[in-house]
Amino acid sequence: MPAQFPRTLAIFCKVVDNYGDIGICWRLARQFHAEHGIAVTLWVDDLASFRRIWPQVDTTAELQDIGGVTVRHWAGQDGQFVPADIPDVVIEFFGVDIPPGYIEAMAQCQPRPVWINYEGLSAEEWVEGCHRLPSMHPRLKLTKHFFFPGFNKKTGGLLRERGLVEECARFQADPAAMAAFLGRFGVTEEEMASLKVSLFCYPHAPVSELFTVWEQGGTKVTCLVPEGVARDKVQAFIGAEAHAGARATRGALTVRVIPFMPQTDYDRLLWACDVNVVRGEDSWVRAQWAAGPFVWHIYPQDENLHHVKLRAFLQKYAVDAQSLVDFSLRWNDAREGHMDGLWTSLQAELPSLTRRAREWETQMLANGDLVSNLLNFARSLRVST
User: Strands across the sheet with 134-136, in order?
Assistant: First the structure.
């Protein structure tokens, strides 16, 4: 094995859940390059979604360099490739189909690249048995290996860049910094003193019901919603177009529409809020590193399979936090219940949920960071061949 392996790496990303897929892949690409000095090529099919989380993206470019990462527009499955085009490690994200010509070139390499199928994050126990399993190509002399993020040492851990936890702690210990950051979006001194909630969910979430509970409640709430999220329900509350900068106050609730922001700013939004409602996988993981209360809106699957995944996580995370379990199941349409009572119970447990979030963070840190774990696995595969 070369002194430094890998030197080169490619990630193939198809955007299904608007921002979660490219969000994870971009974090991976940046961390591989910045922390491990790897030359990374990111193939992505949807540059417009990419641009919303990273404004430097040129949506018209077939090839571009962004912060030292080579970004290629993945326009289709055609194309001819030679072994010289193939990096040391190839990562297909969520089992996407890599172009056939690319796979043919992989098979011609000596030694062959390490081929990783990066899977979705889940707390289900079956993941532990599938992590690192090989899968032989039916025709070519190629083997790919499954790599699962997860919540213990039997999996790949969680995606976390170096210094993230310390940066978050410094920010949260500086009220002036948090006020200055939220002030960029119009949050006033009075709103800083309220219960601040970030809201990032799928369109089917019961947002209107929750707004009604907050509006009629005894605690002032400031809800910060990225532009385009729950658009119809936010517009109904505001009574106008839900563009960035729009706001309205009714009763105890103020809703502010904020711009869709780069990943680094979104992290700070999570750090600055008292409760974070997140969705999918990328923002879900970032909320866990924010070390505060959060509610997860899981990506829906056929036959409600996502409810199994949701319950598996709650069983691990929501220890002695029945209010979070009840509210999360209702938020994800996995049970019935009146939103007012569920929110009241959840709000009463926010201090204990904050303590639990910090305990969880400590547990997750013990598993190492996902990128280092993945690279160590890739090196072990190269040694074994």
Answer: 63-66, 69-73, 39-44, 8-13, 89-93, 114-118, 143-147, 134-136
Strands 89-93 and 63-66: unpaired
pLDDT at 17 over 80: no
Q: What is the pLDDT of residue 19?
A: 77
pLDDT in tens, 65-118: 999 999 999 999 999 999 999 999 999 999 899 999 999 999 999 999 999 999
Distance between the two ends of the chain, CA-based, in angstroms? 9
DSSP H or E run through 159: none
- From 45, 281, 326, 369, the catalytic residue: 281
What is the amino acid identity at position 68?
Answer: G
Q: What is the distance between the alpha carbons of residues 65 and 57, in angstroms, rounded to a whole number?
A: 9
Evaluate if residue 385 carries a pLDDT over 80.
no
* Prior bond of 55 cis (ω within 30°): no
Query: Tokens representing 169?
Result: 């702690």
Please determine, for residue 33, whether its predicted confidence score (pLDDT) is greater than 70.
Answer: yes
Task: Identify whether 21 is a catalytic site residue.
Answer: yes
CA gap 194, 252 in Å, rounded? 9
H or E segment and range at residue 346: helix 339-348
pTM score, whole prediction: 0.96
pLDDT of residue 20: 79
Is 353 strand, coil or helix? helix
Q: Give residue for tokens 């309220």.
A: 194
The answer to whether residue 17 is catalytic is no
Pair 116, 147: CB distance under 8 Å: yes
Residue count (the chain): 385
